[in-house]
TrEMBL record:
<feature type="domain" description="Aldehyde dehydrogenase">
    <location>
        <begin position="27"/>
        <end position="469"/>
    </location>
</feature>
<dbReference type="InterPro" id="IPR016163">
    <property type="entry name" value="Ald_DH_C"/>
</dbReference>
<dbReference type="InterPro" id="IPR044086">
    <property type="entry name" value="LUC3-like"/>
</dbReference>
<feature type="active site">
    <location>
        <position position="250"/>
    </location>
</feature>
<dbReference type="Pfam" id="PF00171">
    <property type="entry name" value="Aldedh"/>
</dbReference>
<dbReference type="InterPro" id="IPR016162">
    <property type="entry name" value="Ald_DH_N"/>
</dbReference>
<comment type="similarity">
    <text>Belongs to the aldehyde dehydrogenase family.</text>
</comment>
<dbReference type="InterPro" id="IPR016161">
    <property type="entry name" value="Ald_DH/histidinol_DH"/>
</dbReference>
<dbReference type="InterPro" id="IPR029510">
    <property type="entry name" value="Ald_DH_CS_GLU"/>
</dbReference>
<keyword id="KW-0560">Oxidoreductase</keyword>
<dbReference type="InterPro" id="IPR015590">
    <property type="entry name" value="Aldehyde_DH_dom"/>
</dbReference>
<dbReference type="GO" id="GO:0016620">
    <property type="term" value="F:oxidoreductase activity, acting on the aldehyde or oxo group of donors, NAD or NADP as acceptor"/>
</dbReference>
<dbReference type="InterPro" id="IPR016160">
    <property type="entry name" value="Ald_DH_CS_CYS"/>
</dbReference>
<protein>
    <submittedName>
        <fullName>Aldehyde dehydrogenase family protein</fullName>
    </submittedName>
</protein>
Amino acid sequence: MSAEATTTYPTSQELRQAFGLAEAGREIFDPATGELVGFVPAVTEADVDAAVETARAAQKSWAALPLAERQAYMLKAADAIEERAEELAVLLSREQGKPLNGPNARFEVGACSAWLRATASFELEPEVLFDDESGRAELHYRPLGVVGAIGPWNWPMMIGIWQIAPSLRMGNTVIVKPSGYTALCVTAMINVMNEVLPAGVLQIVAGDRVVGNAMTTHEGIDKIMFTGSTPAGKAIVKAAADTLKRTTMELGGNDAGIVLDDADPAAIAADLFWGAFINTGQTCAALKRLYVPESIYEQVCEELVKVAQASPMGVGLSEENVLGPLQNKAQFTIVKDLVQAAKDSGARVLIGGEAPSEDAVGFFYPTTLIADIDNDNPLVTEEQFGPALPIIKYTDLEQAIEWANALEVGLGSSVWSSNRERALEVAARLEAGTTWINKHGAIDPRMPFGGAKQSGFGLEFGVEGLKHLGQPHVINF
């Protein structure tokens, strides 16, 4: 592991000053080094009330703007993020832990500006339902009002934009509550955007669960968008029920990948690895359990080990690293315990699997591949959300499909094959919001994204995602 950065970057103090962040409050520490990054000021329910009042006052004039003007504001916000991209990436790396390079901090900040531009470009025209001798009916989508956006700590800025961009595009105003683990980078991004957006259109309340509950129960908030765990999502849905808020829930997953016996292990290994280990495995729609046929099982294992060995892990500000620490101690403990349970069961460790000593700096857990593991092992059945992948051997494809579909979650899934028709046949039988073929976790702003079963409901992205941030309004004349 790299012990320190080899390039000079802005200090945490300089970043706090550059982005107008607080100089007192709850302390945030770098999960890779333990160094102080910044402070999150205390936020109360009264602050939520004030934010809602401001948002409701700003919403009518924001919605009244011609669409072209709202789109122009979004493009200006994208430009503003792009102009500060390197500073934002450094802050993100320090606070979340992810490296600057690879599909990590610089990638995430770049995705924020790209997603704003893409979402601004989507057209949502009135839909003609019928037009005949009986009359004409059109389906329009009007703004909902105020959207409460509650985000996670794994992709804090990018997922924040996933919630913010379509809300603004549809004429809503937005109040963001970031995860308490990663409030600084989201606050910085919103401060940058607010340099060009009209006042009151986008606000942030960086509080705890009490603040989150105040948002989900507030009569002045019309919709909640949430990305996070399934238990937290269930609690939000219950809390929102009394006001009949609209909700979009993007919840936990335990994505299965099925390799077919005609796949080329060497050809798919890198994509398999990054499907599982993007953001050091801390991604809702990452590949978290891999089913491989006995005929090519050892070859797939060997090729994955090669990729793992060539993917350095360490402090995010060291340019060579592409894997980083777990973001927090609680998640580190989950990964450590699940891997230990797999080892105790007799599963074979291909690489990694040894937790660092208690006095080690940072929440680093080594890249871990586990073979010869039973399908009912906790590392398979529970979402690990970290750098540990169980590889389950199968002899019958029907059994692999049954195993893949057996869990209560269904965010994503994937099929790996050199035969597209075979892959499509298997993909059609998997229970998930998205199934990828020969890739995993590839998202696109034009492609709707959402979960099946207890991985949530509602859609994000694309024109379909816009519809979920509007009130359907039928006009019959």
